[in-house]
Amino acid sequence: LEEEQPEPTTYLKDKATSFYVGVAMKSNNLNGKYDEIITHEFTSITAEYEMKMNVILPSKGQYNWSQSDAIVNYGIENELNIHGHALVWHQSTPDWIENFTGTDAEFEQEIKDYITAVVTRYKGKIKSWDVVNEAVLDGNGNLRNSVFRQRMGDDYISKCFQFARDADPDVLLFYNDYNMTEDQAKQDAVFDIVDDMQNRNIPIDGVGFQMHIRYNGPSKAKMESATNRIVERDLLAHYSEVDVRVNPNNDITTLTDERDIAQKIKLTELVEVYNALPSANKYAITIWGIKDNDSWIIDLYNHPDWPLLFNSSFEAKKAHTGFLEGLE
Fold this sequence. Notes:
With 328 residues, the protein is α/β, with parallel strands linked by helices. It is 41% helix and 16% strand. The protein has an 8-stranded parallel beta barrel, surrounded by 5 helices. α6 runs parallel beside α8 (156-167) and α10 runs parallel beside α11. The radius of gyration is 19 Å and the shape is globular. It starts with 11 loop residues before the first helix and ends with a helix.
């Protein structure tokens, strides 16, 4: 039997020259093999969780910058692009905001103060922000009834973008959401929001498609047609949280060759779609984590999966080769 050859050792950043190739990371994983892979393979970083509100402002007036500063300093030291994630997200709301007892006007002021403080602190250091994350419900396209919507009204998204723009006139501002290629109602609703913002000159620079996808979907055609809606609006496209589940139905207990190859093919398709965009609309493809066993997917679904580009031993998988092939 032929011995299986290791995957080619070309680094992603050496071939992805027309856009940033990014990775989500954690402040306590900035050395050893993590550091080696981040600095060799990638040109951009995103905090997986540590720039969210319940981390930075866990209680009123008590800012904690330690983790976000560590990530930003690491990015600057290593000359990496830094994408900020995320200013407003319903799942990272600190209790004091979730249960805010003041008036609606006072609530809005707290959100404005928070966005202003964070964006200002990293002005000139963080190049882009997900301003609002996951504001639209699955299946029906309605706005999620978050505390932000309850207290600031249906127009809270626009208000948050304006707060961010006022804090940094040069930072790139993104709306970010998941299921954007397959949930047509959600996709339509997001682009309705974007159109409304553009019509009213509310600052928005790009749309992030999270691209938490599966080895068997979405189709290349769906990825293409959905992404073209970003291009049509002269906005930047960000595939912002890419991972490819190979075990969505929990029907395998180890990564089979078949799924390994299927994952590679799907990732190749994703990169091909992105790489074919006009250069003016490209921002980044960000992989949501470094190695399989660190992925949030495993915790979320509570069964094994291998959704990333490196295995638990930090070795490049076929998916890594698929990314490279998508750039050809």
